[in-house]
Amino acid sequence: MSLQGKNLADLRRESPRQSFSLSTAIRIGIQIL
After folding, report:
1. Which of 5, 9, 11, 20 could bridge across to 24 with cysteines, CB 3.0–4.6 Å?
2. SS in 3 state form for the chain?
């Protein structure tokens, strides 16, 4: 398995509020499943 882009920690740190919104977190969770 290879990295296809930035990891979630880097993306979260780059966001203005330093966190994901609830809807983004839910979408990430669905993709992981």
Report:
1. 20
2. CCCCCCCHHHHHHHCCCCCCCHHHHHHHHHHHC
Long-range contacts of 6-9 (CB under 8 A, 24+ apart): none
Around Cβ 18, how many Cβ atoms within 10 Å?
8
pLDDT tens for residues 1-33? 788 888 888 988 888 888 889 999 999 899 989
Structure confidence at residue 18 (pLDDT): 87
Q: Which amino acid is at 28?
A: I
